[in-house]
Amino acid sequence: MMFLLAVAPCCCCSGRQGCRIVTAIFTVVWLVAGLALLSTGAIKKIKADSLNPAADFEALGRVCTIDDIGAKQYQITGSEERDRCEEEYKYFFTVGNGTRIYTSRIEKQSRPGPCPVGFLDLQTYAVGQTVDCWRARKEVSSVYQCGNKPECYKIFDPAAEAKEWAKTGVTLMIIGGAFIGVAVLLAGIHLLCIRVCRQ
Q1: CA 139 to mean position of chain CA atoms
Q2: What is the pLDDT of residues 118-166, one digit of tens each?
Q3: Which UniProt keywords apply (predicted)?
Q4: Percent of residues in the chain assigned helix, strand, coil, to nearest 5
Q5: What 3 state SS string does 97-111 have?
Q6: pLDDT band at 176, cuts 50/70/90?
Q7: 72 burial level (CB within 10 Å; 0-12, 13-18, 19+)
Q8: pTM for the full model?
Q9: In sequence order, which residues have a C-beta less than 8 Å from that of residue 136 and are 6 or more positions away?
Q10: What three-state secondary structure class fits 161?
Q11: Strand-pair partners of 85
Q12: 17-49 and 2-14 are packed helices; what angle lies between their axes, rounded to 10 degrees?
């Protein structure tokens, strides 16, 4: 980023058309990316704010029992400090005295460093544990991650999922705004340099 800000004035005054074009392209790329992130974030935030988890779901209380857990892990490799192990858990559970097995959404967890072989212990629930449960009152938004349809029994709080969706939207909007700010700054410096160099 600092490189671009330093190069822009040189490009303006060097008379190199190619250099100016490259700077302009970088400006457009930052602007387009920023607008895309901003609009995506705004859509997520608006969608999350329109939800009413209390009306969409009936809280059944602690009536769901974990019958089994599916788990897998995969290594994310970056720099030594950024290596991390991603783990995914899927819960199979029953509701009340029923025998039908329902599936939860996938729960994602992360730990720093390499994946320990055969050692997955970041799950929220344990086999045999009885947990809080929610049931959809109607067909609900995809924001609520239903592992089973059409019933959509959940062992993760739908209100928390709506809040997380809204939080993601706000984060994307902030990042998008920052990208747009960089694009405007680059464009401003570029235009200022052109004006100065022509004097």
Answers
A1: 24
A2: 667 788 999 999 999 999 998 888 889 888 988 899 999 999 999 988 9
A3: Membrane, Transmembrane, Transmembrane helix
A4: 45, 25, 30
A5: CCCCCEEEEEEEEEE
A6: very high
A7: exposed
A8: 0.71
A9: 56, 57, 58, 144, 146, 151, 152, 153, 154
A10: helix
A11: 75, 111
A12: 140
Give per-residue pLDDT as tens, 46-78: 888 888 999 999 999 999 999 999 988 888 886
Tell me the three state secondary structure of residue 36: helix
Here the tokens at position 100 are 């039908």
Please, which residues have CB within 8 angstroms of residue 83's CB and are 6 or more apart in sequence?
75, 76, 77, 112, 113, 114
Which residues, in sequence order, are CB contacts of 59 under 8 Å at separation 6+? 132, 133, 134
Taken as a whole, the chain contains a residue count of 199
The residue type found at 107 is E
Q: Is 41 helix (H, G, I), strand (E, B) or coil?
A: helix
SS3 92: strand
Cβ-contact 9, 189 below 8 angstroms: yes
User: Is residue 53 reached through a cis peptide bond, with omega within 30 degrees of 0 on the bond before it?
Assistant: no
- Rounded CA-CA distance 102/133 in Å is 12
Q: How far is CA 76 from the centre of its chain?
A: 17
Tokens for 83, please give them: 């290596």
Q: How many CA atoms lie within 13 A of 13 on its CB side?
A: 11
